[in-house]
Write a structure and sequence with these properties.
The chain has 219 residues and is mainly α. It has helices at residues 2-22, 37-70, 81-85, 111-121, 130-146, 152-160, 163-169, 174-188, and strands at 75-78, 93-97, 103-109.
Length: 219
């Protein structure tokens, strides 16, 4: 929506400037001043483009992280503020399944979570809020779906074992990544719905992938 507004403002200014150019002298030879709207509207349009460019940059950076986690090209779309107004869904992010039951290599992450991810990318990585920790994990979890894991409990277990990697890909130091992993594993995972948890997601369990930075390696 904002992108369309920016384009419309620039286009409107251009139209006014062109009309002025062909009528810059009136019928008795006096010069006609350039209307203020001819430069003000494009200026407003370019200012409106700033958050649009920032939005696309954040999506590209998150998509790069998701691609590394999923092991194949993946794209991340951040929900717009306008779409958030009419969104009644409770999920924080989702990946659509194709007609063949295979997850697509694209995810949509909700507006609030993308905002928290943007702040995390921007340097807010020292003792992040619980909501920020969850937002980072959402990116990991949806990446596991894009990797082909359809079962929620399996995707969640694969994700908790990669949250450390996600945090570091987003710029966290080793200590900051460890903090995020500890918080999610101890404060969030135990309270997840039953279909997102399994007793086999533990050290030595059948879903333990033997990764050095799994959450149980820090306890």
């Amino acid at each position: 929506m904002l992108e369309l507004i920016a384009i419309a403002l620039v286009a409107a200014g251009a139209v006014i400037a062109v009309r002025w150019w062909f009528g810059r002298v009136d019928s008795i030879g006096r010069k006609v001043a350039l209307p203020w709207s001819a430069w003000m509207l494009p200026l407003l349009g370019f200012l409106a483009f700033i958050p649009v460019v920032r939005h696309h940059d954040e999506e590209a950076r998150l998509g790069h992280v998701a691609t590394l986690l999923a092991g194949g090209h993946a794209t991340v779309h951040c929900q717009s503020g306008t779409a958030e107004w009419v969104d009644a869904g409770g999920e924080l992010g989702y990946v659509k399944w194709g007609p063949d039951g295979v997850p697509e290599h694209s995810t949509l992450i909700k507006h609030e979570q993308c905002g928290l991810l943007a702040k995390y990318l921007g340097g807010h990585r020292q003792r992040p809020s619980l909501d920020a920790v969850v937002a980072v994990h959402v990116l990991t979890h949806e990446s596991m779906h894009m990797a082909g894991i359809t079962n929620e409990a399996q995707a969640e277990c694969a994700a908790v074992q990669r949250d450390y990697q996600t945090a570091q890909l987003l710029g966290a130091t080793a200590k900051q990544a460890e903090y995020l992993v500890r918080v999610y594993w101890t404060a969030v995972y135990p309270n997840m719905p039953d279909d997102y948890r399994t007793d086999t997601c533990r050290a030595g369990g059948t879903l333990d992938e033997g990764l050095a930075d799994a959450p149980w390696s820090f306890t």
